[in-house]
Each structure stands twice: as structure tokens, then as C-alpha cells.
Amino acid sequence: MANLLVQGTQMLLVLALAPLLTGLVRKAKARLTRRRGASVLQPYRDLARLMRKEVVLAENASWLFRVVPYLVFAATWVAAALVPTFATGLIFSWSADLIAITALIGSARFFLALAGMDVGTSFGGLGSSREVMISSLAEPAMIMIVFSLALVAHSTQLSTIASVMLAGVGLRVSLALALVALLMVAVAENGRIPVDNPSTHLELTMVHEAMVLEYSGRHLALIELAAQLKLLLFLSLVACVFVPWGLAPVGAGPSAMVLGMATYGGKLAVGALLVAVFETSIAKMRVFRVPDFLGAALMLGLLGTLLLFVSGIL
Amino acid sequence: MSEAAFATRLLLNGQLLVALVAVVALLALGLLGVAMASRPAGRSLIYGGALAVTLVAGLSALTAIAAPPAGIVLPLGIPWIGAHLRLDALSAFFLAVVNLGGAAASLYGLGYGRHDHAPARVLPFFPAFLAGMNMVLLADDAYTFLLSWEFMSLASWALVVAHDKEAGNVRAGLVYILMASFGTLALMLAFGLLAAGSGGGYAFDAMREAPPVGIAAALVLALAMLGAGSKAGLVPLHVWLPLAHPAAPSHVSALMSGVMTKVAVYGFIRIVLDLSGPPDWWWGIPVLAAGGVAAVIGVLQALLQNDIKRVLAYSTIENIGLVFVGLGLALAFSANGFPAAAALALTAALFHVLNHAAMKSLLFFGAGAVLTATGTRQMEDLGGLIHRMPVTSAVMLIGCAAISALPPLNGFASEWLVFQAVLLSPDLPAWGLRLMVPAVGALMALAAALAAACFVRLYGIAFLGRARSPNAAEAHEVDAFSRAAMIALAAVCVGAGLLPGLFIDALQPAVAGLIGETMPSQRSVAWLSIIPVAESRSSYNALLVFGFSAVSALIAAVVIHRFASRAVRRAPPWDCGFPNASPLAQYSAASFAQPIRRVFARGLFAARETVEMPPPGALTPARISTSARDPAWAFLFLPLTAAVGAVAERANKLQYLTIRQYLGLVFSALVLLLLVLALWT
Fold first, then answer.
1. Most buried among A10, A235, A308, B106, using CB within 10 Å?
2. What is the mean pLDDT of residues B240-265?
3. pTM, whole model, 2 decimals?
4. Type and span of the H or E element at B555
5. Nearest Cα to A290, choosing from A135, A134, A143?
């Protein structure tokens, strides 16, 4: 019962926090570039405004175009709900392990890339084509990271991995490689600088924004919310695997839960700040430099896995 | 063997009898096809008959998986040996795959065959092809196996060249028959080595009792990989597959790609895991390497193709690679004393065999439907079919998502199992395997991600966007038979994806027969999850993931429609202010693949882009053309054919010698042979 409560709280928590996280990143970026920036609550206002607006649908858009925002949102939400945020005792954590969570994100991307091609505009195709190129390297890199974690924790179950990490596994070379690779994959998966720029339009290097160019109104709101959830998901993933301190263990009391939430909030704030600092201090890459970047992530992940295959203690 | 022995070896059960009757009935249908081909009723009769026979045979084979093995010796074939036939769990599983795939193809053929302009070249061979595949799976001695294998190859060859007027089909047939002969030769040698161990016994039972050892066993493995691998499409023996599979009529393409490659996998499993005795520790290495390489090369090639059926054929190579990775892991685990892990890997491979049969047949049916509706297989001439062909595009979406290994569909379930097997392999003692397995795991992950890219491209270009040709703009939905066949297969993809536990349990008798161990039973797991090893290690519940996602999507839709807005206005596309350009200005198949072509295909595939830019003021259009090569052709087969040609050229001189030179040649040959004889003894 307690686990069910944790699961339910988590589902609502990630949904409620995701826009705030994006607002925080934007605010921090604005301050770092000496602008005042919009309020951290602005993403909520944007979402509410988009939800209320009518949808302007391209004349030849098919049913798939209208269904995809819901699919993308649902898949991302479910994936985000399965990554431990403040407590490990999620009742449904066994329904999908880390490989399945990766694949769920892959499903969301598959459908979004299809939607980009549905109207038959050149920008949509451009975005989809580049998105699948990026994912064709980011996804195997992610799987390699999952392998490294699974070999250390002897489980692909995220709750178990988090518990093992919480109990302490010591400093390991393979985990360090996995962390670097995971950060690189997270940057690419969320379309952040230097891989993609979430705040540009009408620029030939844009990827994600080009794909969703034809979306408007509530559809766009759902896609933006899904993107915000995905950022939250990756920060939570890094937090629960590499800085698991404060996570409430299975069957913990209310005080541990509150502590877990507080530390989780702190971790997210620090994460948002780091993202902002990173993004303001680096330039956007050319699209065809991205494969080198992600190839490096893939190699680091593979190296970490190989080290673990060679010796269980590295 | 005497006459009496034939009678004593009878161990017939109901399922074997059904299988035998099915083979006879299919052969009879083939003969009937010769007579009835020109009549209008011929098509309904042949495909209807094949549908009934394969459906019964397939369902009966399903019940035979859990039944004890049955065998019979028929007084056919070589007089003293007879034809040994046997139905065990492994053959029963593959029989079910073949016959249920065959039933779907027959159902599809009922509608699709209507558009065939040369039915006399298809109708007799279609049931014969099915019969051939059934016979391979029932064979229990080397002679019957090879005979059936050749029969299957020849029947499918006839179907490949059925439409011989279309460009390239005759060449496809030639390459196919050459590679098929090569494959049979390799298998013949493999069986020769196996029979040598048992003192010349051709029955599989005799071979099992005296398995080969040392070099002979290694040679059997190599020959099985060449023989069965060439039929299955392992790189670099795959070159015939992307030529031959698309050349055949679409329901036959589905059979060849979805089903016949599985018969090849069966041949490999039968020879290597059953007849060759306990594997050596290193047997997994070549199999894993071949599988990993086939997976990546196959899917990269698929991304470079513009012909839908060729994309699907190359994707078959990728999936066969995945199956062989599973088999390689099973070999490695069972040779090094981890039977439970071997059972997991073998289950994953067999489950993927079933999944790939369903989804690849579905995709080929969809390609056939597109071909019927638009008259073309070129993606560059398609587009917007989702508006014109609602059923086909819906089931194709399921097929594309399934083969891209997306949860909660079946492709993901089997791939997930393979990954779980990979994660067990640090326990392996051998260094070679320990270094090999993570690399192969990375190749598999890469192949899966590229497969998703490949099928986004296929579906996005052919079914979404705007029509790129008048034919695509006026396409019509296909007939009810074709739709029924596609819907049935889509249901299998969804069912096997949502309830993988049922399928895993059903496979266990076949796994137990080969490994001697099974995966833990999934029936007792709560909530229909699957738990391959232990609950703390990993579990996956597709039903719950699907239910969760569906409920979340529904909640979002209801809440937004109820409390926010439900207004929709149709308007021209925005496209950054440049709407209404020609449909040809959309992203095309070639342009969609451009980033991946640049990243992955420059070296090995020598992908090149040539831009012809006319000088300013010239009226000629600018052109961009792309080219890529198949490394197997470039590095193996073209040099090989050139070498054969050169040798033939030299040998040709022997035709124009004088009588004295011929006599000299005969004399020196005689001396040489006598010398060899003298030195030998």
C-alpha cells in the first residue's frame, strides 16, 4: 500500500515539477547572460495558454498526427514515473527495467519522428531525419550505460540499482565512464546545447523544433510537457544512480520520505544550475559533428562495459 | 534394413500423421496447380486448399511441441535406408511457424493472386514450396533432409523467376540458384562428416550416437554456418537474398523472408546443437561474430535502399543476425556449463524466430498491398497512403513499430531477452568470449537503433506526407483477403508482445530437448510479467506498460478536452512560411537517409554523393546522385567471379589442342595418378 502511495505521488510529482525544472534552467541561463529572464513559473503559464488555444491543423494531417502528442506524452510520463526520484519503493518498478525505460523513450521518439513527416513539409522531414541519426548513436550508447550499471548492480531493475548504489559500491572506473557517457547521452536526448538548441526556430541546425514545427495548441503543449518530463527523467536518472543519497529506501517512514523529497528538490536545483552553466559556456555544434560526440559516448559506454566483463571490481 | 524393420520402427502419433498428410496434400495441390492454373477457379482452389492444409498442420504442430517425439521410417528414397521422419519439439515449433506463416500467405494470396498476370508460373510452385519446407522439418536422415532442402530451394527458385519479364529477376534467380547449390554442397559435406563418425549411418539417430570430435566437429560447425547461413542470409553469403526475396510475388516474398530463413535457422540448430554432440567452448565465437556483423550490415544496407521490398529483405538479414547472436550465446553458455543461461539465450532466439516470421510476413504483405494499389515499390514515388489505405497503413504501423523493437510489441520482447542473456555472460570463463560478448551487445544495440531509423524512414516516406506520384494519389485500399491476412499477423505481433510469458513457456519443450534445461516457468509469475532469471535481476511486464501508457494518454486526452480546448481549425501547412510547395520538395527516401549515409556508410559501403551544378544561366537542372556498394559484392563475389572467369578463359585453350597434345595430357595424367597411388601406399 505504501509503495502504491509512493508510486502515485511520484507520478504526480514528476508531472508537477517538470515545467518548474525547465523554468529554473531558463532563469539560470538568463541570469548567467545578465538578463533578468522570465519567472520560473513561465513554463506553466505557457502550457496553460497553449492548452486553451485552438489547434491549427495542416490540411493534409492524418489521424496519426493528432494521436502522436498523446502517445509521446504518455510514454514519457510512464518512463519518468518509473525512475526513482525521492524513494526507491515504486510499486510498479518491476513492470519495466532500465532497458524497457530506454525503449519507451525510443517509442516516443519513433512516433514523434513519424509525426514530423506526416504533413509532408521539408522542415518536418529534416527534423525527423536528423533526430533518427542522433538517436541511432544515442540509443546504443544508452544501452551500453545500462549494461555497465546492470553489471555492477547485477540487475537491470532501476529500484535495485538505486538500492545497490545507495549501499555503496565504491569508486569504480567503469562507473565514471558510464557517468560521462550518460551525461553526453542526456544532452543529446534532450536536444540541449551543444547538440541541439531548444530555444531556436528557423535555423538550419535545429532538430527537435523542426520536427514539431506544425504543431500548435494543446498538441504542442503536450509535446513541450513531454520534453520537460524527459529532461526531468534524465536528471532524476543521474541523481538516483550516481548521487543516490537521501533516497528513501523501501518501507521507509514519512520522515524519510520528506527528507527524500527535500534532497530530490535540492538535486534538481543543482542539476538545473549545472545545465545552465554548461549551456552558456559552450557553443552549438555543427550537425555533422554530433556523431563524433555521440560516438565518443558510445565508446565510453562500451569501454565501461568491457572493463566490467574483464573484471568485476573495476 | 529389412522389410520387417520398417514396420517395427513405426512410432506414429496423430500429429506426425497430420504432418505427413499435409505434405502429401500440399504436393497434390501443386500437381493440381499445373492442371488448374489457367482456369479462373484455380487460384481460389489452390490458395484455399493451401490455407486449409497449412492451418490444420500448423495447429496440430502447436499441440505437438509438448508431445513426446514420434518417428516413422517410410520405404521411400534409397532402398536400404528408407526415409526417416521424426517429429520432436524443435521440429514441431518450426512446423508451427512455417505452417501458420504459410496459412497467412495463402489467405493473402487468395486476394493478391488475383492481380497475378502469370498464375501458371506461381500456382503449382506455391504449395510445392510449402511442402518442401515441411519435409525439411520432418526429415530425420541426411538423405531426406538434403532432398527436401533442394526441393525447397528449387520450388522457391521457380517462384523467384515467376515474373521473368521484369528487369533483374532472371539475374536474381541465377544468383539465388548458385548460392543455393553452394549451400546444399556445404550441408552435404557437413552430413558426410557427421555420417563418417557413425560409420556411414545416414539416420540422425546414428549420428547423435557418434558425434564428431576435434577437427571434424569444427569443420561441421563451419560447414553448417556456410550451408544454413547462406540460406538464412548471414553476411557475406547474403548477396542473393536482397535480389531474390523482392523478385518473387509478395506473398512468396513473405514466405521466403519470414519463413524459409527460419527453416535455415532450423537446419543450423539441428546440425550444431543436436547432431554435433556437446559444443566446444569456442563455438559461440564465430556464431556471435557472424550474427553481430549481419545485424549491423543488414540494417545499414536497408537504410540505403529505396525499394520497399529490398528494405525489408535487408532487414531480414539484420533479424537473422539477432537470432544467430542468441544461438551463439546459447552455444557459449552450454559449452561452458551454464545450462540455465543457455536456455534463456536459446529461448530468446526461438522467440525471435517466431516474432520475425510474423512481423516480416506482415510487412511484406503490406509492401504487396502498396504494390497492388500503386503499381510501384519505389518509395520515391509514394507518400500519403495513410489517407488512401487506412487499414493497410494501420497494420503496417504496427509491423514497423514491432520490428523497430518498441515496447510493448513482440520485437522488443525477444530483443529484451537477448539483452538479458548478454548480461549473464561475465560469468563465462573464457577470455575470448568475455571480450566478444559486450562488443556483440553493442552491435545489437546499434542495429536496433538503426532499425528504428530504417522503419521511420520506410513508413514516413511511403505512408505519410503527400503523394509523390499520381498513382500514389489515387491508390485504393486492397481486398478483404489481403486485409484479413495482415490484421491476423498484426494481432500476433501485439499478442506475442503483450503476453510473452505464454510464448516463452510454450517454447520450453524445444529448449529442453536441446539444452537439457529450461527457463523458469512464467505461468506462475504474478501479473503476467516475465522474469527470465530472478526477480531481483530483471522483469518486464508489457501488459502493464501498455496499460499504463494507454491510461495516461486517455487521461491526458479527457482532461484536456474537458477542461481546456477541443477546437480544431484546418489550415494550410505552416512550414516556416513556405507552404504549398510541390510534393517533390518533401524529404525523399534518399534525403532522409543522408545523415546516416554520411555517418555510417562512407567507408565500408563507399557511399558517395555527386552534385552536378550547372553554371549560372544554364537551363539544365542541378542534380544530386548517390551511390553505395554492398561490401560482400565488392570484396568477395566480384573478385571471385572475375577469378572464375579468368580460369575459364585459360582452361578454354584446352579445347583447341592437337591430338598429340591431348595424348600427352592423358599420358601425364596417368603417370601422375600412378605416382600418387604409389606414394599413398
1. B106
2. 96
3. 0.95
4. helix B542-563
5. A134
